[in-house]
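Box 4.2: Ligand-aware structure prediction
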Amino acid sequence: MNTAKRKFSVIGCGRVGTCLAAFLFKKKYEPAGFFSRSRTSAQAAKAAAGCGMVFDTAAQCARAADIVFITTPDGFIEPVCEDLARQSALGPKTMVFHLSGAHSSEILAPAKQAGAVVGSIHPLQAFTPYEPGQENPFKGINISVEGDPDAVAQGKDIAAALGALAFAIPTESKILYHASAVVASNYLVSLVRFALTLLMETGLREDAAFEILSPLIQGTLSNIGSKGCTRALTGPVARGDHETVSRHLADIDQKLPQFSTLYRLLGSHTLDIAKDGGGLPEEAKQILSSLLK
Ligand SMILES: NC(=O)c1ccc[n+]([C@@H]2O[C@H](COP(=O)([O-])OP(=O)(O)OC[C@H]3O[C@@H](n4cnc5c(N)ncnc54)[C@H](OP(=O)(O)O)[C@@H]3O)[C@@H](O)[C@H]2O)c1
């Protein structure tokens, strides 16, 4: 891969685009152009980068660069890419990246058909609007990279230049990868909220309930990290204690029936993990399995 300084443009100067402009290591990557729906956003990104030009159109902006980052909201990536291809704004060596987690590089097909190299890089981070002097939000985070082989190599270099750690994923796995991130982040919130609701039923407020459960949650995460999921699993399902599970269900069915299905679904998934661990008596497995159906 060519490791010479490469010019980049940002189309869509919001949270992520402006942070790219500010933190992509200037000794390796040169900010060349900025375009956004509003000129004010493009000018703010230019100010964050400290150099480059603000352009009137996305096509002009793309022509100024070797690497084009389309950092619009997800729904605009494809139309912006189509526009760039239609305007012949992409040379055969231009690399086009988007930063969405929910889409693969396949939505950049118009750029590929126009001869460009395409890829997606997804930073596993929640970005807030850029503020001058802020810490680098890419530092130490994980970034997935997928796409054409040259784009994957370049994407890894971009991640390193941002101070992040890169890992490659196959294009066809991008949506499952994103589902995994959603489960790990958003559904963890749902799971904690479920646990809090059960505890709040005893008369506690949400903040007090969280304070009580927090060391248990943190300790469990730490055990998963040190022992893996199967060995980190404790509790009645892992012990085959179907009587306790049965009493949980009776109380939940009576007092919080809206959570009956969720408890059973999670319990059933937990039983699968307990089975993986081995050692559960056959009878306990069967009773738990029918209780949690
Ligand atoms: N935010 C996160 O935490 C996060 C994390 C990982 C990945 N991502 C991904 O990063 C990408 C950008 O997200 P974001 O959070 O930075 O979004 P954002 O803050 O809403 O910024 C998007 C920017 O694109 C500009 N824009 C909208 N339509 C445009 C168009 N047709 N042409 C040119 N510019 C246009 C907007 O315009 P103006 O300001 O000019 O009006 C806005 O500044 C998305 O693909 C998202 O999935 C976001």
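In the box above, the bound molecule is NAP. Residues 11-17, 36-38, 41, 71-74, 76, 80, 98-101, 122-123, 125-127 surround NAP (CB under 6 Å).
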